[in-house]
Structures are given as structure tokens and as C-alpha cells.
Design a protein that fits this description.
The chain is an alpha/beta fold. 39% of the residues lie in helices and 17% in strands. It has 2 domains: 8-266 and 468-485, Aldehyde Dehydrogenase, Chain A, domain 1 (3-Layer(aba) Sandwich), CATH 3.40.605; 271-457, 3-Layer(aba) Sandwich (Aldehyde Dehydrogenase, Chain A, domain 2), CATH 3.40.309.10. α2 packs antiparallel against α4 (121-142), α3 crosses α4 (121-142) and α10 (280-292) packs across α11 (309-324). The structure holds NADP nicotinamide-adenine-dinucleotide phosphate and magnesium ion.
Amino acid sequence: MAKKKSNQIKWDYASAPESTGHIQLKDRYDLFIGGKWVKPSSGKYFDSINPANKKVIAKVAHANGSDVDKAVKAARKAYDEIWSRISPAERAKYIYRIARLMQERARELAVIESLDAGKVIRESRDVDVPLACNHFFYYAGWADKLEYAFPNRRVEPLGVAGQIIPWNFPLLMAAWKIAPALAAGNTIVLKPAETTSLTALKLAEIIKDSGLPDGVVNIVTGFGDTGAEIVNHKDINKIAFTGSTAVGKIIQKATAGTGKKLTLELGGKSANIIMDDAPLDQAVEGIINGIFFNQGHVCCAGSRLFVQENVADIVIEKLKHRMKSLIIGDPLDKNTDIGAINSKEQLDTINKYIKIGLKEGAEMYQTPCDLPKGGYYCAPTLFTGMSQSSVIVQEEIFGPVLTIQTFRTVDEVIQKANNTPYGLAAGVWTDKGSRIFNLTTKLKAGVIWANTYNKFDPTSPFGGYKESGYGREGGLHGLEAYVKLK
Ligand code: NAP
Ligand code: MG
């Protein structure tokens, strides 16, 4: 049979030109306010950089207080005049449309995410972008069923939501924030992180194409004071923040007594626990995925490994062996496992912690490799021989750095795993259901995985205990954060 000529466009990610072809990137991005592209009132723009080669991808507008005020006014007008008045079924149609347009442009979104954030294309393509679309689909489904979501209650939106997101999952965090807020009938002012504005701006284009009424979603880019201008704006009813615990504490103080509803998704130092009866090869894959997924820039990363003493040697040997096969390289290459560190600042932070670990007397192992030149890279790293009080055991590093501790009994590992100011996530690897039940009941963390790690789904709530924040995103709980229940 004659071979049919493929009409599929071939796209070579590795040699993708950054401003041509199927990725449409402008040289300069303005603010998305009231459904229009608006110049920043200061006239200032900052560079968005590709951390894999330090090249400027585009210039992005720096919003100040007066721009944030414009965005809040646009959001308020859209809330009063349109979004709070149209039927929930109408709202759902727009959210479905955004989800479908995102799917149509999934490849472009994935490439831009990898360019701007340094994350590997396999992850942007197979995890971040599909999950982001699924969040819109999932919450679109709830928009006209709110009385079933909260039976016997009158459900009202909150008004204007101010949303601030970090740089580790730029598009996905925007989806986690925007989709439930829209479904519940709120309007939005969202600020992406300084180093990763581009997919949020692409989402603004998609939102415009979807015909969503002007001002329902506003995207203000910036850094420095931009986030605080949102937090402190008097006409905002809700703040949703994902980022570091330090900034979360500032926001908690700033919003106290203002009547603003607040949810905080903050840092973590999650325990990944391997019992001696666990399927060890699977567990090793779970450890690798737990700490090296997205270069370890994951709030719920399994960054503290606990291995039962009698299997510790074999697990560490298998882990080192597996680490040798990890490919560190160009984020746009489909075969790359570990991409670039998001920014110079973050690479400096990680290297600072590696130095502290060595100074504390811990033993280090790194994947033997030549790091790619010209970008921000860090070899996958593990440390053994620390004490529970070591700085690298206690503090969030937010990079591809794993600490390994051993334990003898279940009680001991529960005590050690809970001995942290954080409480975002944990993982448990064992063959016994009773052990899973025992450990998952006693671990103080918002999300606990058994025999898997870093699995996310829009139907499942996500969020922390203790200094990892409060409130939940995802599932029905995520909707609750955006409604008033009477
Ligand atoms: P970050 O420094 O706290 O920044 C997060 C966002 O807040 C950025 O958009 C930032 O803007 C903005 N911001 C900074 N100072 C502010 C202020 N005073 N008021 C209002 N907004 C302010 O965190 P990051 O370094 O981007 O992200 C890494 C952290 O996020 C890690 O700790 C990680 O664990 C956490 N995280 C948590 C979750 C979760 O679900 N729990 C998910 C992902 C990440 P600029 O930096 O652009 O100025
Ligand atoms: Mg960037």
C-alpha cells in the first residue's frame, strides 16, 4: 500500500525558533485589562528570560499601583454589570470554551512554558498543559450545579478575586486559580510570577478569543510591589496566594481585619517513606519522580526521604544507579529528564543549600555528568548522614536536592516525618494496607500518596497543614474558597 503523505506539520522542539512558526510570541507584552492590551502607566517593561540559555524571550509590562487599580475597577465593573448577572449555565459555556481553546493550542502552550520556565517539554506537554485544561473542564461542570455542591445553602460569589501565583507551574497555577473563581461567579485580577509571565499572557489571548466578557479576567504582570498592590487594594474581596511561606505570612498580616477572604498555598518539606516490605524498584521510581520532577521546583516535592534501616543500603544503591541514567539538558528536547533551574536567584539558593549540607558534614552524591553550558543547571543531588536538625533537612530547598534519613520503627518515622514546620504532602511505600492506614492517619500533611507520588487531579483537593498554608484548591473544596454560603 502506498504510504499516505502525512499532512501533520513537523515540529522540531529542539530547534524551535522563539518568535516564529507555531509559537506566536510578541516581542513585548502589555497588561490585559478590561479585555484590552493596555500599556503600563510607568512605561516600564522587564525581560522574560529562557533560563536554559539566558536569552530574552520577550519584554513584559511592569504594573504599578495605578495599573492594579485600573484592573480592579475593570473587574468590579464586569462583576456588577455582567458576570454576577448572567445565568450559571452561560458562565459554564465560556469556561468550556476556554478549556477547548487551550486544548487546541496545547502544543504552543507547552513549548512556551518550557521556554520560559526551563521545565522539560515532556512534563509541560504531558502534565502541566493537559491538567490545566482539565481544571477548566472540571470547574465548568460545576458552574450550574452549585446548589448541588452545597445543598440547602444559598450560594453567592465573593466579588473580585486577587490571585497571585508562583513560577514553578505557571499555567497550571493560573488554571487552579481562575477556573474555580469563574465557575463560582467571581471576576479576577491575576498576577503571574516575574520569571514566568508568558503562558498567563497566552491564556489572556485565549480568554479574549473565547469571547469572555471584558474585565472578567485581568492579567497584570510585574514584580516587586505589584503583588502587594493587589493584596492591599480596598476593593478586592478575596486573595488567593500560592508562593513561599515567608510571603504568605506577610499577606496574612496585611489582610487581617480587612474582611478579605484568604487562601494560602505555601511551601513544603514533604516526607517520602519507604518501608522494608515496599516494592523497591517501584519505590525508587517514586523517589526519583518525587524529588526530580520539575527540577524539584515542586511545593509538595518528596524532598525528605526516609528509608527503613534494613533496606537502606539497597535502596540508596538502586537510587544512585537510577540517577546515573537521568538526562540533564535542553528542556525542549523530548528525551531530557532534568531541565533548567528557573532563574539565577533560584540556582544561587540551591547552591547555597548544597554548600550548607557539605559544611554540616553530610555526604553528597550527584549524577555524574557535564552540565549544559550557557544556562542555569544543577545536577540531581542527594545527601546522606545528616541529623534531624540539619538545615538541609529542615528548610525548603526547592531544587533537585534530596536528603536521606533512615529509621527502624513506624513510630520513629512518624515522629521524624512530622518534625517540620511544614505539612503539605507525604508519600508512603509499603505492601501492607494496615501500614498505609496507620501512617496516613498519623502523618500531619494535607495530601498523602500511597505507593505513588506527585499525582494530581482536578477532582481532588490539594493544600497544606501548619506553615504550608490553609484552604484547599481542586475538587469541591476548591470551589468553596470562592463562594459565600448562606
Ligand atoms: P514567592 O517569592 O512567595 O512569590 C510568589 C508570588 O508572590 C510571585 O508572583 C511574587 O511576585 C509574589 N509576591 C512576592 N512578594 C509579594 C508580596 N509582598 N505581596 C504579594 N505578592 C508578592 O514564591 P516563589 O519563589 O515564586 O515560589 C516558590 C514557593 O511557592 C515555594 O515556597 C513553593 O513551595 C511555593 N508553592 C506552593 C504551592 C502550594 O500549592 N502549596 C504550589 C507551588 C509553589 P514576584 O516574585 O514576581 O515579585
Ligand atoms: Mg522566564
